[in-house]
């Protein structure tokens, strides 16, 4: 009973991702940089979390480790989704398969293949996983991100915000446990960025777990929770973020030299 209760806290049904004691250093000797210095965080299923912190605080490293794109030196990453699996220590082939099936990732640079249509770009992860995919599924995936009727357009014929929405549709087409986003609105104008953020908010309201790194307090205010990282460590949380509160918390974390 007690063990079940403890397990419930660590990797229970309600958590989509649990990070425990994550450490990651780059380089060695005098050049060694500690990017993550023992971070433990849990992300509840169906919630939208923003990760914020000063430049170089370890946000991208955290996201890359949590998404199985980088390996921590110590600590564990557990993906739950009803079928818990620990990423750390998985052989590369299993990790690749797991990333393909259970993890979605969107970046600041959208990385769509320019020669392919929106529909063909969205189909790619399923094709790589050897799955059949129908036109109807692809149309539905694009409709979910507000791009019905745009399936035949190539990236060059779409706006920046529309391209990012295609990338989100591509990341979600495998129905991943978690959508990781690293500065998804960093390259967009305010209006396109707001559309992408509203889309992500709606996806989370529909049950999608989202973890997003951002520098922008307005972007962070769309999330349910903001976690702050400073010097590779967890440095507080806000469960009712507004742009003003987030900006104030961030200012208090900035290295004195930049303040
Ligand atoms: N591949 C790498 N090799 C060496 N050092 C690295 C590497 N990646 C990150 N670092 C260092 O690790 C620390 C954390 O980097 P990370 O990119 O995670 O920070 P961040 O908070 O995402 O920064 P930013 O907000 O500027 O993007 C930094 O000091 C960075 O210089």
From TrEMBL:
The cross-references to SUPFAM superfamilies, in alphabetical order and at most eight, read:
P-loop containing nucleoside triphosphate hydrolases (SSF52540)
Query: Gene3D superfamilies, per this entry?
Result: P-loop containing nucleotide triphosphate hydrolases (3.40.50.300)
Taxonomy of origin reads:
Bacteria, Bacillati, Actinomycetota, Actinomycetes, Micromonosporales
Which InterPro entries does the record associate with it?
AAA+_ATPase, ABC_transporter-like_ATP-bd, ABC_transporter-like_CS, ABC_transpr_LolD-like, MacB-like_ATP-bd, P-loop_NTPase
Q: What is this protein called?
A: ABC transporter ATP-binding protein
| One MF annotation (Gene Ontology) recorded for this entry | ATP hydrolysis activity
The species this protein was found in: Actinorhabdospora filicis
Q: Which residues form the ABC transporter domain?
A: 17-256
Q: Name one GO cellular component term.
A: membrane protein complex
